[in-house]
Design a protein that fits this description.
Number of strands: 0
CATH superfamily: Tetracycline Repressor, domain 2
Shape: globular
């Protein structure tokens, strides 16, 4: 039976979503095209009707996962983001978690097209976080300082997940890393918010 254009687009989107989840769980090299297509419910031969190569699918799946992370950050202030991100549920749910934490190490060894998707995705996430925290921050010193703080927060949060996942499941250290990093990041955010200028008391 002939597949309609709309159905073909739905099939492609389903393959991308399946690949995004599997890549986050196993890494780019941890799943082959045949297994990926089987997981999506299609034959191996149908892959090239949708994609020129596995690398093309990797780039598209990465962009999809990165956009999901940015969308989840919309409307959440940085502290709320950290509470949800630097958490055991996120650490243990690789397939549904952040693409940045799951695949940044892999992306560093991939072609430039995939690295460009990561750069765009990270930028989108920072934009969403800054909008939630500060609105449309101006490009002045205050705006740059806010961006610097968010980059530091994001790198610290991603690093916490990566280090925790590197430890054995159930390891006390895996949980300790999350607890320590979450507390330190939240303390830094609270300190930054308390650094707002205040009115100076008149001298006696």
């Amino acid at each position: 039976m002939r597949v309609t254009k709309a159905q073909a687009e739905q099939n492609r989107a389903h393959i991308v979503a399946t690949a995004s989840r599997l890549f986050r769980e196993r890494g780019y090299d941890g799943v082959g095209v045949a297994e990926l297509m089987a997981a999506a419910g299609f034959t191996h031969g149908g892959f090239y009707k949708h994609f020129r190569s596995k690398a093309d699918l990797m780039a598209e799946a990465s962009a999809s996962g990165l956009s999901q992370t940015a969308a989840q950050a919309e409307g959440r202030d940085p502290a709320e983001f950290v509470e949800r991100y630097v958490a055991r549920e996120h650490r243990d749910g690789r397939g549904d978690g952040c693409t940045i934490a799951a695949l940044s190490g892999d992306a560093a060894r991939q072609p430039a097209d995939i690295q460009k998707e990561f750069a765009a995705g990270i930028e989108s996430l920072l934009t969403a976080l800054q909008a939630a925290a500060h609105g449309d921050a101006p490009g002045d010193a205050d705006g740059r300082a806010a961006r610097t703080a968010l980059i530091d927060m994001l790198a610290h949060s991603v690093g916490a997940i990566v280090l925790s996942r590197a430890c054995p499941d159930g390891s006390p250290l895996a949980d300790e890393i999350l607890d320590v990093c979450r507390e330190e990041i939240l303390a830094a955010l609270a300190h930054g918010n308390s650094d707002q200028p205040t009115a100076r008391s008149p001298e006696a």
